[in-house]
Specification:
single chain; Rossmann fold; globular; 11 strands; 11 helices; alpha/beta
Length: 329
């Protein structure tokens, strides 16, 4: 039985995850409202409501909605990570910029939704609220928060503040923590890996056996909707993954299969890669490739009965098909 069969609102509805959530809602016949900035477009069929910013949302924006999936956020970018190493004042400025959107903006959104009578608020957080690499075993939802950077700090603080907000006001807050999200339309490092494989470039990943959890954007959308509707989700934190933890080298090989271009993997010891990365100022990028980041997502399956609609292989196949279609192949 669902907590709500009514309309679900989304912030960030025009983003990578927001569009996937929109499509999933519409496919299930659930009325969807998208809160976006003026000039932005939602998926066809989504009721677009325009806002000037998270701190300026009026309760009227949530009229007729029973739940909110909060996706809008300042996302992690490498130039912010680099800026944090330049000076204490610059690092603090970066942190405050993340807090303004990811903490204060999330709380303002939740308060506006509460005043409109919304009963369920789903925060899309990140595994970075816990850390950049696992503690020798898969992360669980009960592990201590040790965020590695300003983005992770802001997500960890948002989780704490929103769960406290829910306890204080009675709003049912749910926190969703995904690891790396991929799928059609993906950008950043995942897209860069596909570009390199498709061009036949050698990748120094053959000796990297670190395992990392992933989640396809369609699986994440499915889980977010379940968290917005299932009564058992109230007040809980859930990890969401595809249920498989491929090695970095294995992931590259599987992508190569689906792209029709076998990945050219060169075996370079992880220590050599890290040393070269330090010299080139690319330590953060290489750490993401050489360190394990495994995530235990059994709680959402056991508590909510949720099952990933896509396997890892199906998700990678869909992503590769999108990549090939956008490049005229």
């Amino acid at each position: 039985m669902s907590a709500s069969d009514g309309r679900i609102a989304m912030t960030g509805a025009n983003g990578f995850v927001g569009r996937a959530v929109s499509r999933a809602l519409l496919a299930r016949g659930i009325a969807a409202t998208g809160l976006v900035r003026r000039g932005s477009a939602c998926e066809p069929g989504v009721d677009a409501r325009y806002i000037d910013g998270l701190d300026a949302i009026a309760p009227e924006a949530f009229e007729g909605c029973d739940a909110v999936i909060h996706l809008a956020a300042r996302v992690h970018v490498m130039r912010d990570a680099a800026a944090q190493t330049q000076s204490a004042s610059r690092a603090q400025a970066v942190l405050e910029a993340y807090r303004e959107t990811n903490v204060d903006g999330a709380l303002a959104t939740a308060e506006a939704a509460r005043r409109a009578g919304v009963t369920r608020f789903v925060l899309m957080s990140s595994i970075k609220a816990l850390g950049e690499s696992d503690p020798g075993r898969p992360f669980t939802e009960d592990d201590e928060r040790r965020p590695p950077d300003a983005y992770g700090v802001s997500k960890a603080e948002a989780e704490v503040r929103l769960l406290e907000f829910g306890s204080r006001t009675g709003m049912e807050v749910v926190v969703v923590r995904p690891p790396l999200v991929y799928g059609p339309g993906v950008r950043a490092n995942f897209l860069a890996m596909m570009n390199a494989i498709a061009r036949g470039l050698p990748l120094p990943l053959g000796a990297i056996d670190a395992r990392r959890s992933l989640v396809s954007v369609d699986n994440l959308a499915s889980a977010a909707i379940e968290c917005a509707r299932n009564p058992a989700a109230a007040g809980r934190v859930f990890h969401v993954t595809d249920g498989e933890d491929p090695s970095v080298a294995g992931l590259a090989r599987k992508l190569g299969e689906h792209l029709g271009k076998p990945a050219r993997l060169v075996s370079v010891p992880a220590g050599v890669l890290r040393g070269a990365a330090r010299l080139a100022g690319k330590t953060a990028q290489i750490e993401r490739l050489t360190g394990s980041l495994r995530v235990d997502s059994s709680r959402i399956r056991d508590t909510l009965g949720w099952r990933a609609p896509q396997s890892l292989d199906q998700g990678l196949a869909a992503t590769a098909a999108w990549y090939r279609s956008t490049r005229g192949r």
